[in-house]
Specification:
- There is one protein chain.
- With about 180 residues, this protein is α/β, with parallel strands linked by helices.
- It has one domain.
- The chain is about 40% helix and about 15% strand.
- Helix 4 (about 45-55) packs across helix 7 (about 100-105) and helix 7 (about 100-105) packs across helix 8.
- The longest helix has 12 residues, at about 20-30.
- The mean pLDDT is about 90.
């Protein structure tokens, strides 16, 4: 954790290491391909990146962070999910809380964020702690009038840290 913090200066934030490749990649995709929607999914650190980047860039219409975060107030022992420096160390979290990021990632015309958590994850953010904030975030997004937020709890497997086929079917429903 301290190694990333040591890189932070007045002109450089180590969060750039995680985020800078995304707009470059999206710009390339938009210049070379035609898509009607842009979605983002990631697990663990990629789930955290999905949460943060969808909050920053409204061109991400559908975002699916998997086992990527919980609000800081829910990260208490004995749970071992404090995450790395990027999850709780940056000064960003003194200004914006995770519930704000969830709202920003879901807000907007045609936008939706589904936070996907693994009920029995052996790494990160397991259990049902999301019940303490899910309705608050949904209510706020509804008050704003555009967008949708939901939580998907995957109980289809035990003691693993992954995106299951069951979860992927929620993201990409089978077509008939």
């Amino acid at each position: 954790m301290n190694q990333m913090a040591a890189l932070e200066t007045e002109t450089f934030n180590p969060l750039e290491i995680f985020l800078d490749p995304l707009p470059i990649t999206l710009r390339y995709i938009k210049q070379n391909y035609t898509f009607s929607t842009i979605s983002m999914i990631g697990i663990s650190g990629g789930g955290w990146t999905t949460t943060l980047y969808a909050a920053i860039d409204p061109s991400i219409q559908y975002s699916y962070p998997v086992a990527g975060s919980l609000p800081l107030f829910l990260r208490t022992p004995p749970c071992n999910d404090s995450g790395g420096w990027e999850q709780s160390g940056p000064s960003l979290y003194k200004k914006v809380e995770y519930m704000d990021l969830y709202i920003l990632g879901a807000y907007g015309k045609g936008r939706k964020q589904v936070q996907m958590l693994n009920h029995y994850d052996n790494c990160c953010f397991e259990g049902i702690r999301y019940l303490t904030y899910e309705n608050i975030v949904k209510s706020r997004v509804n008050q704003l009038g555009e967008g949708e937020f939901d939580v998907f709890l995957d109980s289809s497997f035990r003691y693993d840290h992954k995106i299951s086929l069951y979860a992927l079917e929620h993201v990409f429903p089978p077509t008939s």
